Amino acid sequence: MSTFGKLFRVTTYGESHCPSVGAIIDGCPPGLELDVSDIQVQLSRRRPGQSNLTTPRNEKDLVHLQSGTEHGVTLGTPIGLLVKNEDQRPHDYSETDLYPRPSHADYTYLEKYGVKASSGGGRSSARETIGRVAAGAIAEKYLKAVYGIEIVAFVSSVGKIHLPALLSPPSLTPSDDNEDNDNVDDAISEEFRSLLTTITRDEVDKHPTRCPHSQTAEKMTQRIIRAKDASDSIGGTVTCVIRNVPAGLGEPVFDKFEAELAHAMLSIPATKAFEIGSGFRGTEVPGSKHNDAFIRRPDGSLGTKTNWSGGVQGGITNGEAIYFRIGFKSPATISQAQATAQYDGTPGTLAARGRHDPCVVPRAVPIVESMAAIVVMDQLLQQEARKAAASRLPPIKTLPPTMVMPKGV
Amino acid sequence: MSTFGKLFRVTTYGESHCPSVGAIIDGCPPGLELDVSDIQVQLSRRRPGQSNLTTPRNEKDLVHLQSGTEHGVTLGTPIGLLVKNEDQRPHDYSETDLYPRPSHADYTYLEKYGVKASSGGGRSSARETIGRVAAGAIAEKYLKAVYGIEIVAFVSSVGKIHLPALLSPPSLTPSDDNEDNDNVDDAISEEFRSLLTTITRDEVDKHPTRCPHSQTAEKMTQRIIRAKDASDSIGGTVTCVIRNVPAGLGEPVFDKFEAELAHAMLSIPATKAFEIGSGFRGTEVPGSKHNDAFIRRPDGSLGTKTNWSGGVQGGITNGEAIYFRIGFKSPATISQAQATAQYDGTPGTLAARGRHDPCVVPRAVPIVESMAAIVVMDQLLQQEARKAAASRLPPIKTLPPTMVMPKGV
Amino acid sequence: MSTFGKLFRVTTYGESHCPSVGAIIDGCPPGLELDVSDIQVQLSRRRPGQSNLTTPRNEKDLVHLQSGTEHGVTLGTPIGLLVKNEDQRPHDYSETDLYPRPSHADYTYLEKYGVKASSGGGRSSARETIGRVAAGAIAEKYLKAVYGIEIVAFVSSVGKIHLPALLSPPSLTPSDDNEDNDNVDDAISEEFRSLLTTITRDEVDKHPTRCPHSQTAEKMTQRIIRAKDASDSIGGTVTCVIRNVPAGLGEPVFDKFEAELAHAMLSIPATKAFEIGSGFRGTEVPGSKHNDAFIRRPDGSLGTKTNWSGGVQGGITNGEAIYFRIGFKSPATISQAQATAQYDGTPGTLAARGRHDPCVVPRAVPIVESMAAIVVMDQLLQQEARKAAASRLPPIKTLPPTMVMPKGV
Amino acid sequence: MSTFGKLFRVTTYGESHCPSVGAIIDGCPPGLELDVSDIQVQLSRRRPGQSNLTTPRNEKDLVHLQSGTEHGVTLGTPIGLLVKNEDQRPHDYSETDLYPRPSHADYTYLEKYGVKASSGGGRSSARETIGRVAAGAIAEKYLKAVYGIEIVAFVSSVGKIHLPALLSPPSLTPSDDNEDNDNVDDAISEEFRSLLTTITRDEVDKHPTRCPHSQTAEKMTQRIIRAKDASDSIGGTVTCVIRNVPAGLGEPVFDKFEAELAHAMLSIPATKAFEIGSGFRGTEVPGSKHNDAFIRRPDGSLGTKTNWSGGVQGGITNGEAIYFRIGFKSPATISQAQATAQYDGTPGTLAARGRHDPCVVPRAVPIVESMAAIVVMDQLLQQEARKAAASRLPPIKTLPPTMVMPKGV
């Protein structure tokens, strides 16, 4: 359905060709200073028309708050908001009346609903994500104010152009499989790990591709322009880091932190893959090298020496940085001619008209950050309930030694 | 929490060291022939002690049905079931009273709950998955009986040993990035795609590793034995295919088919990565080569020529085979000595005692299949509600031409 | 939270003093003809200013559809809608800055949220019900089109003025307790039962009180005017009947039809009581007289001779008319002076300014109907899923005789 | 479905004629001392065979804890438990193979599920409530330990025999409607209000009817025996009070405290009516007499002088005692001959065999208490999340005067 979250809940409505898109955000804690500009800043990072790499549609995407705040402070009641669709022309996709776009949602929406919306894929429209970005911005405001949580996403690949700092290639030939080669350090470079601890949104936004490595960013630009010039499209990946999340978030067993995160990320249009921490590459190294040994932090708490786990162990956050990567396929709508079939099966050629993003990953960055914020906020509230309830219990006089909390924790 | 699903719902309880583990499965359609043996067969594939590759604990894992059926037929009421823990010794993990196991859930469970269970990671125990496998077996019985749906998972890699038929390596060097190289066919081989259409559980079970390619299976065995001999562990991947799923499943926008699937898969212990269809590799090729062109099937319906989408477009199934891959990290519990810290921060060395799987992927196969079955069943019921409700509506007399269902569909 | 329903879901936002109130309605079946006027008619019945019995605020309450339909047909996607608050003056309740209104939500909202909204009771505002009424109107459109379901509510009492046809008084003195007196027919009169089978909204709307018995309606009017003249308020009851609901709706065990209905009704502001069928009075008669004997209906199906059950047995609808009664307390906000205490405990006298309904039941009628429609729609979709799924199963060859469906059903 | 609650969740399974009934209780705070006996005491109050007023079936109803505790302390993980059905004979209800019992769930279950369980009404069995009582006992243990919350239910009427202290009869004749008669004090007597503040379970259990007024209890006994001797049955009401609930519980707008409570109560078999506070009677008096004026409590906090609201205002608890009344119809299964129809419509006479309760209210008392405890616990956890999250926010420097928390609160 169109609702995400248990205690911090987002419900969205709207598609491309209706009067507005919007959302209701329920469960925001009361007493948070919240201004329209807190939301607008992320919406503006999401909107098209920011550079020559994105669709030239110039939607202003101004958010209108409807409820839930007074004098710039949240009341704890649902926050209603909407963004008008300035470009509600029914559609200029006339071929798509006959042809379902290959790899687009046109056909599956028809199979699901049995009626054909003028926009074809209906809610699979990127405009639906506006509500999510608004909700995420609200969650982030809280998370930053209370825990100093920082969520930064960036483009880690476009086509075959990867951020070199990111990841060395996994070794896929069995000949590589020997003790000397069982090293996870090869998989995730020191440089990349360092990037995760320092990267900021300002750095990310320096280049229109939102890749924080300028030389790679330049190559990515060329790759996107090549796709655009060929009336084609190209995919890519977004990597995201969440810093300063307290330990203990994530609900065993079905709603593990990474399970909710994967759910959230794969609900973003065009996503096909998710990995957390060392991800697929980490499956190739032995436990002795992949395990994150514990160390005492300066403040006396436990931390880990390495962080191949990506901040989550057993589905619960451990206080280390959470990082993950999402794969976005190349956009399905291209104006290049495609040999395909009409709805009725007649073979033919489709060349979609209209203005389309040749590559979605730069604009996906704030969407990824927003869904991450929503997941953290929702899991945080669930853990707050448990912790507060447990903290009120009288101490147990004779807790068995095995259950005694080890000293120092 | 411990419940998964909206209309087909599974709730589980239990950990390693309590009297039993079990589940309540709610929402199973009434009138389905269901016998204990339908469930037992998958539980037996899951249980340890099946070969020298798994932990020698010999748990019989016999399921006891408590409710929801009569005379071998489901009543539509909740199915209660349990499996006794025959091995409930409090634990023989005495070092773990002092040490949280690195990359295990011991520390995070303590952070979350504030009390220390004797098993450390509590519900992160693999035994918790018994309830899921039982639920999945019930869902599968229905899906097979009504739609002929086939769900087959297999081991596609152990450490660096990959099923050669599976996937060619993604090209990660920018130098490879040119028009001649933009070919998704390189990414997912013809041989692999053919395997997906034919593979059966019998073939998968021929080898204890559950890899359907005998030569690779043998190398995987050597890799697992190398880990075992070194008191170490190793990760791997499981690939799963679901055939014959009707088009139209998956709930826009937050509960897309692949979002629910990713949620389900990343709720399985030790998972770190998920990809559907062409996944991460698919992000590297342009839309013109990645898009799945439509074709008319012999029965007149629309199919796709290729299936890089993995059976899902816009979050909704399109009737093609659904395939996905899950990454499992190497098990955290190893008996090799590890330099780490105690709960109180004191540095030291931990060598976990007890019997542990050096590699979980062979046993993970039925768990993956089960979670897949639960997701399909739950999404199917949601779509049944919509379709049935829509089908009862009187036809609209003058539906605008753009909303008219294209001929032939 | 602000969401109601599982498959047909309503989420609302807004309070009195913000730009708009609105709702997102998710799960509406696709292909339903739906026009703004379908919604407006019930909103207009709800709005204030319809007669001298209600508050003179003249809110036009025009609904603006934002999404989910095209060319007057539902798409199956979420329907966003809003109604502007034309009267958003911060508030003219200055005494209520010092005084929590007795029996109002001012104090409890402050306890819950810790911040003080200018409207005091925030979401307890009657304007929040606009979203519900809109959602209910959409559900009703479907239910009427497909099943001919009719939902009619009316005012059955104001203060001590009861619809005489309604209910004879329960006998509360033990001396009445003897065999001769064990008669449920005394409790619910024949005249009342007949009214339930024929009453229409047109008849209900003939009188501003919405009581369908003109003499009683006149007395009710006098009672309300007496309250108004005394700067006081008065409570009452609303009775509602739902006709033509198919048998089989209601989810055992926690979400029984009447449990969901009671939940829905007691979520309406100012409600304090709910009873279905013979209700409290029915508890006084023996089973032999209260049981609804089965009879064969002309069409061969089973019906019941009487209907003390109110159309629900074991939490599941049986195809008979569903009727229930809801108690609304007298409105808390009165302009008569009240001896009470300020937020800080200082004793004092409060005379609330502003314009307030002396009696809410006439305007509550469409709200009750709407919540009833939402419950029926949601339960219907859940049962559709089950029925459709069960209907696809192959027949069981040798069903045990006890499980065989009795002939004729 | 078979799950109740959001953060404190109960899922039950089982019916009369299967191996066991049971439940999974998820979300119990960790660190609570919990022993089997805490649960058994309420199960024993619920079980049949306690006096000659109930069915002579002697089920021991011993609970078996399966998980979620260690050394008598909760772990925070799901608590699995079960009670064996010692009396699993398929059934001795042979007439009910032909006849659906009037006003029972036999017919509606068949309509819902399309298969006939040997027990007829399946999950409508009173045995299903065992899981609820167990869950409620766990919730109560927490609520008592942390807040000193006391939940006491008692029988307030059997047939026409009402606890005289309870309620004076509502005046239903219009002639009574004048200013002199607008007094809510007549509706709920001082004696009854006093009873609510002091009543204990020990006092309730002194008499087998569980009516705390010995003379009335005696008359109730006679009434039940009269029903039993006539092979008939009789209904009644249960009143429940919850003391010491903190202010601020209840989720606007759909999940108001009383809405959840009504949902919970009307999910108990045989219930038909619910009222909170002054309930239906309170609708008859004007606001000026019904409003609960605020007073300063000795500890400086705000209380109310009267409590016609029943501890809930605007759907949120205000710290006063919560009291409510539930109507239970007379049990449908009677051994007296009834003229009715068979499943196939054939008219005939049914005289149900077997052993049945002539009146359920005495045994319903612990079920009502348990469902009340579950609702309070679940709402408490939701409010804990909000409060904890809000409490961590930095103070707002310049909160507008209208939003400033009034002094003294």
UniProtKB/TrEMBL annotation, chains A, B, C, D:
A Gene Ontology BP annotation from the UniProt entry: chorismate biosynthetic process
Cofactors (names): FMNH2
Reactions it catalyzes: 5-O-(1-carboxyvinyl)-3-phosphoshikimate = chorismate + phosphate
Enzyme class per UniProt: lyase
Pathway: Metabolic intermediate biosynthesis; chorismate biosynthesis; chorismate from D-erythrose 4-phosphate and phosphoenolpyruvate: step 7/7
Cofactor note: Reduced FMN (FMNH(2)).
Keywords: Amino-acid biosynthesis, Aromatic amino acid biosynthesis, Lyase
Gene Ontology MF: a single term: chorismate synthase activity
EC code(s) of this entry: 4.2.3.5
Tagged with keyword Zinc: no
InterPro entries referenced in this protein's UniProt entry, alphabetically: Chorismate_synth (IPR000453), Chorismate_synth_AroC_sf (IPR035904), Chorismate_synthase_CS (IPR020541)
CDD domains reported in the protein's UniProt record: Chorismate_synthase
Entry's Gene Ontology cellular component terms: cytosol
Superkingdom per UniProt: Eukaryota
Tagged with keyword S-adenosyl-L-methionine: no
Family listed: Belongs to the chorismate synthase family.
Assembly and oligomerization: Homotetramer.
Protein name from the UniProt record: Chorismate synthase
